[in-house]
Automatic annotation (TrEMBL):
This is Cytochrome C. It comes from the Bacteria. The keyword Membrane applies. Gene3D superfamilies: Cytochrome c-like domain. Signal peptide: none annotated.
C-alpha cells in the first residue's frame, strides 16, 4: 500500500486545529529541506576540514577565505601539477579537475 496515501489520509482525519499545526510545521520546515547545497559547495566544504569553516583557519593551516582568485587558482593548480610542495594538498588537488579547482578558488575568494 502507498505510504503517502496513508499519511494524507491520516492528516485528513485530524481535527482542524491539528491540521493547522501540521500545515504550519510543513511551512516552517520546507525551506530547510529545500536548501540543498550545490555540488560546488560540497566540493569546497571538503577544504573546511583542514582550512576551517568557510575557509577561515584557526590553526597553522592557511586560511582560504577572501584570498585573491588568481592566487588561489595558481596555488591549487600548482599542487595538482606537483609544482607546489605540500603535505597532503598535492594528493587532494589531483582529485579535482582544473575547472573544479578554478571554481573552488572563486568560491573562497568571494567569501567576505
Amino acid at each position: 500500500m502507498n505510504t503517502s496515501i496513508i499519511c494524507l489520509g491520516s492528516v485528513l482525519q485530524m481535527s482542524i486545529g491539528k491540521q493547522m499545526i501540521f500545515s504550519m510545521g510543513l511551512f516552517l520546515f520546507t525551506p530547510a529541506l529545500l536548501a540543498v547545497p550545490s555540488s560546488l559547495e560540497i566540493q569546497a566544504n571538503t577544504c573546511n576540514v583542514c582550512h576551517g569553516e568557510e575557509g577561515l583557519s584557526q590553526g597553522s593551516v592557511p586560511s582560504l577565505k577572501a584570498k585573491p582568485i588568481a592566487y588561489l587558482e595558481q596555488v591549487l593548480l600548482a599542487f595538482k601539477a606537483d609544482k607546489q610542495v605540500g603535505t597532503i594538498m598535492n594528493r587532494v588537488a589531483k582529485g579535482f579537475t582544473d575547472e573544479e579547482l578554478t571554481a573552488i578558488a572563486h568560491y573562497y575568494a568571494e567569501l567576505k
